[in-house]
Amino acid sequence: MEAQTPESSHVAKKPKKRRLTLIIILLAYTVAALMLTTTSGDIMQIAENHVSSLVGDQGGIARANSVSQISGISIVNLDINVNGQTQNQDVYLTDDGNIMIIGNLFETDKSLGSNGTYEVSRADIPLGDRELTLGNPDAPVTFIEFSDIECPYCARFYHDGIVGVKKLVDEGKVYFVYKHFPLNFHPEAIPGANAIECAADQGKWIEMHDLIFENQDSLGASSYKAWANQLGLKTVEFNDCFETSKYQDKIDADYELGRQIGVSGTPASFVNGIMISGAQPFTNFEATIRAEIEAENA
What we know:
Blueprint: H1 6-36, H2 40-55, E1 61-70, E2 73-82, E3 85-94, E4 100-101, E5 132-134, E6 141-147, H3 152-159, H4 161-170, E7 174-180, H5 189-200, H6 205-214, H7 221-230, H8 235-243, H9 248-260, E8 268-271, E9 274-277, H10 282-297
Parallel strand pairs: 6-7
Antiparallel strand pairs: 1-2, 2-3, 3-4, 5-7, 6-8, 8-9
């Protein structure tokens, strides 16, 4: 066996040095990446600060309680206090903390139907004897909206999404049901909901609803009473209904139903039970409505 010369032995050791250098570089990058990783505490602080800024103009503040994860998304549970009232709500953040979502998050249902297509998740939403509705209850599509009259996103949805829905109601293709989901950091959410219910007693719920969303910067008891008069309602009857919060139980029941089916923010709507989350333009969910119409008429 031929013996190695000192020179050949020196050459053989060079790859080991290169491997060692590479390992050191990789370790350095790993340490740097770990140092730059956003921690759970950071995520909670980001959520708390951002939500506090959103409700700050109303004297509100948010406090983060906990953080958990699902499919790479951080879920931060917050207590949001405005005017002495506290609401518990989840918000969702990407792991780097750069994007926050306030609304509804659902795990996808990947179970296959018998025809080899994915089953669409649908909420079962029972309707009571006294609902705020427009259109034919036998229409192929039932569109249910959970809303808050003081929510700016609900106002945006009113000016776009609901306009398209109302057109389909007029065509007999959609049955529209309006439900209350008052967020407790909106002081006029419950009084405004009561105003709509009291107007419904005299057959004018949608008119009061529209006046409220057309004048969202003028909400208050005096405005509701003035609008009742403008609509030709019996003002004594309306005022008595409003001042006694006659429909508080119904408003509470709507809110609780929304929570049970996964609503955590407004607006949240359902097309034959299929959720449409947030203030989406009508063009974003028109195809879903028309597909349901075609399926019902097939």
